[in-house]
């Protein structure tokens, strides 16, 4: 991989930060943390030598950064990005996805934000992105199921790297715990990732779940079909193993 941008899209609370932490540890990539959701939240975001106030401007800055060397972008779909969806240049990046069982993601999201709305759960928006990209590129984007990632981290990361054209670097699977400067605006959301030293399952106990709260159960019923559609394309734990 040389002069290219890889984007990892995720519904919130699907272990995307832990995945991106592996990419940070590699040392051969410029890693950009949630630029699209940060721009949506605060109205602007700095990338490279520029500042973007719209998603097309931001995409242009990321592609410009990628022309100088390999870039990995991690972002979430608690926001919808209509201008980005309409921009044909999005297909110039290698767009990939990470998902998690919606029951787990919803309970975790609600624990962080009790006012979370149905669209913010993000699986439907992920599927919309997936479909747009599949139509434009003529192939299904790479999808990682985070349950497989925590069960077989080395195999899944190796398979992902093969699929997107990166060398597999085993040393990146472990790191020193701690917060990262790029997480500062949303540090509370990355507390679990900051406490880890590698990819691991960290199951929490939540006061409200899809089994105890009807609103969350309705969120699960709505989003699970989109999760299932994405999961049908999941990467297997062998290099080059995407169905």
Automatic annotation (TrEMBL):
Gene3D superfamilies attached to this UniProt entry: P-loop containing nucleotide triphosphate hydrolases
Coiled-coil residues: none
A Pfam family of this chain: Sulfotransfer_5
Name of this chain's protein: Sulfotransferase family protein
InterPro entries with a match to the protein in the record: P-loop_NTPase, Pyrrolopyrazine_biosynth_F
Originating organism: uncultured Mycobacteriales bacterium
